[in-house]
Structures are given as C-alpha cells and as structure tokens.
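Lab notebook page, bench 4
Experiment: in silico fold of construct C2
Operator: M.H.
Input chain length: 86 residues
Purpose: comparison with the prior construct
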Amino acid sequence: MWSPIKISHLVLYFIILITLTTYASELVTLKVYNINGREISTIYKGFAEPGRHSLVFDASNLGSGLYFYRLENGGFSSNGKLLLLK
C-alpha cells in the first residue's frame, strides 16, 4: 500500500527530530503513547501542505522504555515503535 507520508527520525540527547514528507494537503496528527496505551504527547496536529516538515519531540522527561507513535493523515494511519534507553 502506498503511504501518503514518509517519516524518519534522529535521536540526539533524547531530543527526537522527526521529518515528515507529505504528498497531499491534509490534516496530519502524530501522537506518542506509552506501553499501556496512554497518550504521552501530541507532537503535531494541524494542516500540512505537501513537502518536508521537521518536528522536534523532547523525550528528556520520559523514562527508559518502549513507546509507540501513531501517525494519521486523511484516511491513512501508521503505527511504529520508539525504544528509549537512558
């Protein structure tokens, strides 16, 4: 299935730089959840024009562990894992 969004990330001192590439103008939502499914943060929620967008997520206040993200764009959604080790 073709994804309308490409996501990549870089972790540097628990600051996560997230790069989104959108191919259509739509509402984009990116959230982070803990292992219990509780929402930790909404990194981005807004309208995004086509192109590259950089977002910063400060994870320094989170403990080590497994976290999940959910990215939604129009009718598309994607889930992924983030492993944070301190």
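Observations: The mean pLDDT is 80. Residues 17 and 56 are 5 Å apart (CA to CA).
Next step: discuss at group meeting.
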